[in-house]
Each structure stands twice: as C-alpha cells, then as structure tokens.
Amino acid sequence: MELYKVQKITEANYGCEECGADGPKAEVTLVQLITDNGKGNAEDTKQSVSCAPGDSRKVELTESYLAEIGIQEGKTVLFGADGRLRKYVKVVGAIIVKDGRIFATQRGYGEFEGGWEFPGGKVEPGETPEQAIVREIREELATEIAVDSYFDTVEYDYETFHLSMDCYVCHVVSGKLELLEHEAAKWLGKGELDSVGWLPADVVLVPKLEEMLG
Fold this sequence. Notes:
Blueprint: E1 3-10, E2 25-32, E3 56-62, H1 63-69, E4 76-79, E5 85-98, E6 101-106, E7 116-117, E8 120-122, H2 129-141, E9 144-157, E10 161-174, E11 184-188, H3 200-203, H4 206-213
Parallel strand pairs: 5-10
Antiparallel strand pairs: 1-2, 1-4, 2-3, 4-5, 5-6, 5-8, 6-7, 6-11, 9-10
C-alpha cells in the first residue's frame, strides 16, 4: 500500500478556458510516506516522509472533488483500487468475546447510522492500536477491556475515504458495555453473525470469525 502526505494544494486557475465540464482543477502535490512493516500505518512513523525527487508526484483534481472527500494539506491519502485519490482513515475495532459470542453494535449517528459494526474508532497521534482500542471502548461503552490478540486488518475503499481497520480480540475486564453512542447491541454466536446488517468493511470479517468460533 502506497500512502502519501498532501504537501501542497495549488488553487485552480479560474481563467482557464479548457477546464472541461467538471470545472477548474487544483494541482495537488503528494509526497510518499515511509510506512511501517507492510501494515501501512502512517501514524506509526509519525508521518515520516522521503524527500527524494522520485517520491513526489502531482495530480490535478477539481476543487469540488477535493471538498467532497475532505482532502487538505497535511492529510494522509492513497489511491484506491479504482485509481481515485481518497483520504486515508486509520481505525481500530474490538472483537469482544464472551462465552463463545461476539459483541456487535449498531451505529446511532452519522453517515452510516443504522449499520452494524465492531465498536472502536480512530487511532490518535502517539497511540498504539492497542491503546486506542482500550480508550475507545472506555469512551463509547464505559467499559474496561484487555486486548488478547491481533485478529486481522481490513482495507476497504468507501466512496470518499479509504478505511484501514486493525481488529483485536478482546475481553471485558470491568463494566457493563453501556451504549453511550450506539443505537443497539447484540451478542452473536456461531451461525448468527450474518443475522445483522454489517457495514461493508466489517462484514469482511464474518467468515473468519465463524471459523474462530468453531
């Protein structure tokens, strides 16, 4: 995976007469990030960049598209499987297991309201993924968890951003998994995981989780 940092955005030339139907285009200068050991987590390297001439590139994008996908100077981006530039979003997901069942939550807000997911959230600067997932569950569910093991990383192109989600198998240390942000929750056992409407990135994990539950 090739990650880039948006180094500079040069405003569009509004006097251009050959801009096409999509309107004036801005020039975006990208510098390739040096990522970690193949997982593509730019935060792990504190946004280190290589300044060799061959590592930078320029692309032209309409300002309306830049606004739609929320790309600004300093953001981490990548080119998706379809070749479109997208913002890169790094998150963590908790696979909380108890008595052979997995805890699933239904999102109660935002663009994906109503979809089912593994609870979690964004990795903050300076955090390890393990630290991030413990903090997120404390904030979202008023519960302390412990990380047992790394499970998988999902890479998924949504329409306006690319999601990279590190998932960890966890267990509850204390707390009652209170729904402070989510609409609903369920404990799902083997054969029940496909009974809810998972968000597109989360559903990728279902077959492997079925195997884990045996």
